[in-house]
Amino acid sequence: MYDLAFFRANFDSVSARLATRGNQLSLEGFRELDQRRRAAIQEAEELKAKRNASSMEIAKLRKQGVDTADAQQAGRAMGERIGFLDEQVNKLEDEFRELLAGIPNLPQESVPVGRSEEDNVEVRRCGTPREFTFAPKAHWDLGPELGILDMERAAKITGARFTAYFGLGAKLERALTNFMVDVHTREHGYTEVLPPFLVNSASLFGTGNLPKFGDDLFKIEKSDLWLIPTAEVPVTNLFRDEVLDAARLPIRFCAATSCFRSEAGSYGRDVRGVIRQHQFQKVELVKFTTPEQSNEEHEKLTADAEDILLRLGLPFRTVVLCTGDMSFSSAKTYDIEVWLPGQNGYKEISSCSNFEAFQARRANLRFKGGKGKAEHLHTINGSGLAIGRTWVAIIENYQQEDGSVLVPEALRPYMNAERIEKSGELR
């Protein structure tokens, strides 16, 4: 969300920058609302000045014994009109804010201009995809063969896009979560937090999920509660409506949670396997910073997420998203994409975004240093990492010709195993 004064003073430049996102913003509605608001304010101010002058004149006339009934009636009429105008200004302000809430964030100047993911720019590549001496399998074949993944039984008890893990497959998910949280808290400087998995509408508005993206969420009937699409939502809202001491910033949180998404806009995409699920596990990294810190902290957060892949020995590349491929709330986003040999391509495993003050204005997140005036802080977040997709990357990259899967060395203390072999327990 934008600062109202900034938006009103920069209609045309805001429109031009939003156009790079493919957002053709019509400013006529905003201008018309603003003109009506300004006209109402001007008329109210003129009437208030006139009423004040009339009150002084009435007081003078009454001292002289002059009948002021007509003047007093006129004053009451002016008061009623002023009350009406003030109410109109408030309604127009609310309408203006409602329209403003549906406008995406402005991209940073460093973001490449483009229309789609085809225009994203690779900034680095780490690791070399393994050369197999056999045809590598996709996880949706290898997992069931090993007896560690069952999508059919999950669909029976819940529906499509849900998964059941068994044995070392389930343990691998748990090991990845513990490994990631340990690295981020012990070595990267994050504080672990376990937030609620249900949030209210105000929290989703604060992060930009509502009102625009309600169809992508799961809502609890007969309540103002929603299942979280990511830990970003509850963690970002921890300090909603608070003023933080600047000396505390940056604040870095790490949260491991389940996430729930309806995937309303992803029809036909990643329908096989566990890449795109309605329920999945994720380790989320969230930062609260001053404006001066945010770009550097954004780069550090992205490096922290990449470090997990480096420790697991998984090849990946990092791309900066173009203006047309960024999320609604983001000012700049890096996507980290891991190599999946079973699908012969890179797949997003983390999205690391700097939202600048966009979410902070919506959630009223502020900071204050010394005797300075309170101002909106900046928020940053990213996956560190998506557990299910990391699971997939390990199964596919570490598969062996005999059908087993080697466990990366970094995970062996968590797994108490060096290899995942066919269990035969399910079939």
Short description:
The protein has 427 residues and is of the alpha+beta class.
Work out the number of β strands. 17
Distance between the termini: 53 Å
> Quick one: CATH class of the largest domain?
Alpha Beta
From the alpha-carbon coordinates, what is the Rg to the nearest angstrom? Answer: 28 Å
Superfamily at the CATH H level of the largest domain? Bira Bifunctional Protein, Domain 2
N-to-C order of helices and strands: HHHHEHEHEHEEHEHEEEHEEEHEEEHEHE
Report on the architecture of this protein:
- This protein is an alpha+beta fold.
- The protein folds into 2 domains: 4-100, Helix Hairpins, CATH 1.10.287; 117-420, Bira Bifunctional Protein, Domain 2 (BirA Bifunctional Protein, domain 2, 2-Layer Sandwich), CATH 3.30.930.
- Helix content is 40%, strand content 21%.
- It has helices at residues 4-9, 11-19, 28-63, 69-100, 139-146, 151-157, 167-186, 201-207, 232-236, 294-312, 358-363, 387-397, 412-415, and strands at 121-126, 149-150, 164-165, 191-192, 198-200, 225-227, 242-245, 251-260, 279-289, 316-320, 332-340, 345-356, 365-368, 375-376, 378-386, 405-406, 419-420.
- The strands form 5 sheets. It has an 8-stranded mixed sheet.
- It starts with a helix and ends in a 7-residue tail after the last strand.
